[in-house]
Specification:
The chain is mostly helical. The chain has helices spanning 19-31, 34-58, 71-75, 78-99, 101-108, 112-147, 162-186, 189-208, 218-224, 228-236, 246-270. The protein has eleven helices and no strands.
C-alpha cells in the first residue's frame, strides 16, 4: 500500500492551518505586547529627536553649512535605533521560550518552518513600516529646520531623500531579523540580546582598534566592512569612496539574514521546544 501524505491539521470550525493564519497569529502576538510599543516609542523618540537636534546644531550659527547633505541628520540615529530593532526581534522569540508559550505555538502549528517564516515576516514588515513612518517624520522636520536657513532636503531627487529613507527602514528590518535569529539559536533573552548587541554595536567598535595596528592587521578592517551596520551605512548613503558599493552592501545584509534564519530553522527542527 502506498503512503498517503498527511493532511493539513484542521482547526475547530473546519478551518485548516495555513501561512496567512499563522501570520495573523504572530501579528496579534507582536502587536498586543506592551514591550513592543514601548520599544517603538523609544525608537521613535531617538530617531526623530536626534535628527531634529542635529539639524538645529547644524543651523546654530544662523545658516546651514553650504554643501550640507541634510539626509545625514535623518539617518544618523540608526546607529543606535538598530540596536533596539535587534533587541525587539530577540525578545519577540525568547519571550515565548521564557513563558513556555512556544510549546503552544508549535502545538497549534507543528510545521516549525512555517512558524519561523511567519514570525520573521511579521517582525520585518512591522519594523520596516514603523521605521518608515519615523524616518519620514524626521525628514519632514529636518527639512523644515534647514529650509528656514536656506537649505532643505531635496525631495525631488529620489536618491537624495527617498532611497536613503527606504534603505534605513530596510536596515531596521534586517536588524530585527538578526535578533530573531539569535532568539531561536540561543533561546535565552539575556544571551540573545548580548549576541545582538555584540554583533551590531561592539564588534564595529572593536574593529577600529586595529586601524593603528599596521598593514598586517588591515584584513580586520576590511572584514569589518561586512558587519551588518557597516554594510548598512554603505547601503543607505552610497558613495564612490565607500568600501562597499550599494549592491554589495545589500547583498551582505541579505546574507546575514539568510545565514541567521537558516541556522534558526536547523536548530528549531532539531531541538525540543
Amino acid at each position: 500500500m502506498s503512503a498517503v501524505a498527511p493532511a493539513a491539521p484542521a482547526l475547530a470550525g473546519g478551518y485548516r492551518l495555513s501561512l496567512p493564519r499563522t501570520l495573523r497569529s504572530e501579528w496579534i502576538k507582536l502587536t498586543t505586547l506592551r514591550s513592543t510599543w514601548w520599544s517603538i516609542a523609544i525608537t521613535a523618540a531617538l530617531t526623530i529627536g536626534i535628527g531634529v537636534l542635529i539639524a538645529f546644531a547644524l543651523t546654530s550659527s544662523g545658516q546651514a553649512p553650504r554643501g550640507l547633505n541634510g539626509i545625514m541628520a535623518v539617518v544618523s540615529p540608526i546607529q543606535f535605533t538598530a540596536l533596539l530593532a535587534g533587541i525587539l526581534g530577540a525578545i519577540a522569540v525568547t519571550g515565548e521560550y521564557s513563558t513556555g508559550m512556544i510549546r503552544s505555538t508549535l502545538t497549534a502549528d507543528p510545521r516549525r518552518g512555517r512558524v519561523l517564516v511567519a514570525k520573521a515576516v511579521v517582525l520585518a514588515v512591522f519594523l520596516f513600516l514603523a521605521s518608515l513612518v519615523m524616518f519620514v517624520i524626521s525628514a519632514v522636520l529636518v527639512s523644515a529646520i534647514l529650509g528656514g536657513h536656506g537649505q532643505s532636503l531635496e525631495w525631488g531627487q529620489p536618491d537624495k531623500v527617498i532611497l536613503p529613507v527606504l534603505s534605513a527602514s530596510v536596515t531596521m528590518a534586517v536588524c530585527a531579523l538578526i535578533g530573531v535569529s539569535f532568539g531561536f539559536l540561543l533561546r535565552s533573552g539575556a544571551g540573545a540580546i548580548a549576541a545582538t548587541v555584540g554583533l551590531l554595536f561592539v564588534l564595529p567598535i572593536m574593529s577600529t582598534f586595529f586601524a593603528f595596528a599596521g598593514e598586517s592587521w588591515k584584513w580586520v578592517m576590511d572584514a569589518a566592512n561586512y558587519l551588518p551596520l557597516s554594510a548598512a551605512q554603505n547601503a543607505i548613503l552610497p558613495s564612490d569612496t565607500a568600501p562597499l558599493s550599494a549592491g554589495v552592501a545589500f547583498l551582505t545584509l541579505g546574507a546575514w539574514v539568510a545565514a541567521g534564519l537558516l541556522g534558526s530553522w536547523a536548530v528549531l527542527r532539531s531541538r525540543d521546544a
